[in-house]
Task: inverse folding
């Protein structure tokens, strides 16, 4: 069992930055692909970014490519999502995710464990 806890959400103006953190505990979390998803009101949960368990390969949704950066620290069992040049349409609940058998661009059914989510609100 892997427990994921996100922190770092909040309110930011358009064009600003936020960094989300996801602390993992339990199991062999350092061997999992880590990812971020987001869900806006009345919309389905969507893929944002993935990082391989070694941290050597990343994948991004087209909507965030060039603005968001995913990273991980396997010593600290923590993954991060650096979000720059935020837009109003980035407003959503952001979820950390761990996938044991999958990598690349993930779908929700690929995920083995979810965090509780953290709200990111971008204002004009």
Result:
């Amino acid at each position: 069992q892997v427990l994921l806890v996100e922190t770092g959400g909040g309110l930011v103006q358009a064009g600003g930055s936020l960094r989300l953190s996801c602390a993992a505990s339990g199991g062999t979390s350092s061997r999992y692909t880590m990812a971020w998803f987001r869900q806006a009101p009345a919309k389905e949960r969507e893929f944002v970014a993935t990082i391989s368990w070694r941290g050597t390969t990343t994948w991004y949704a087209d909507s965030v490519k060039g603005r968001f950066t995913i990273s991980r620290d396997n010593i600290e069992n923590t993954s991060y999502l650096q979000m720059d040049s935020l837009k109003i349409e980035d407003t959503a609940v952001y979820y950390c995710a761990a996938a044991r058998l999958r990598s690349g661009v993930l779908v929700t059914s690929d995920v083995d464990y979810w965090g509780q989510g953290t709200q990111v609100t971008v204002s004009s």
Observations:
- The chain is about 0% helix and 50% strand.
- The chain has a mean pLDDT of 95.
- The two ends are 40 Å apart (CA to CA).
